[in-house]
Specification:
Blueprint (H helix, E strand, L loop, with lengths): L1 H14 L9 H8 L6 H29 L5 H11 L12 H14 L8 H12 L5
């Protein structure tokens, strides 16, 4: 059930007619502010953040695919995952809630980053936490 909610949040995010700047760190924090008491807020918050995490790695794989047009995207994705060369690799033990907490804590501690697109903050957090895949 959580996967479908996260997927729905990502679809809504991508399909939204709201200008990109509306999806700043401030906007994310507004969505997430009631997540402790509101299940929908929690699901939307977590879905946006985890969707961004996966989207960043998929984007990296897409770039690799474009650079290796003689291979299929599935071949490249499988090889990159096998070789652990995607942008970052959270450990299997980390939960979506932990990643969500990390991003929101980062935005709390760095108010100067709240005006930028929240995906940039997501990237900063996960890349710093897991700089290399091992």
């Amino acid at each position: 059930m959580r996967i479908s909610i996260a997927a729905m949040a990502l679809i809504l995010y991508l399909a939204s007619p709201i200008p990109a700047m509306a999806w700043s760190g401030n906007a994310l924090m507004g969505i997430c502010k009631d997540r402790q008491t509101n299940t929908r807020s929690a699901d939307a918050c977590r879905g946006l953040i985890i969707g961004a995490v996966h989207g960043l790695n998929v984007g990296a794989l897409r770039t690799l695919y474009e650079q290796n047009s003689d291979k299929t995207s599935l071949d490249i994705a499988a090889n990159e995952m096998k070789e652990k060369r995607v942008l970052f690799c959270p450990p299997d033990s980390v939960t979506n809630e932990q990643v969500t907490d990390m991003v929101l804590n980062y935005l709390e501690e760095h108010p100067d980053k709240r005006d930028q697109n929240f995906a940039e903050s997501v990237f900063d957090v996960v890349r710093k936490a897991w700089p290399k895949c091992q």
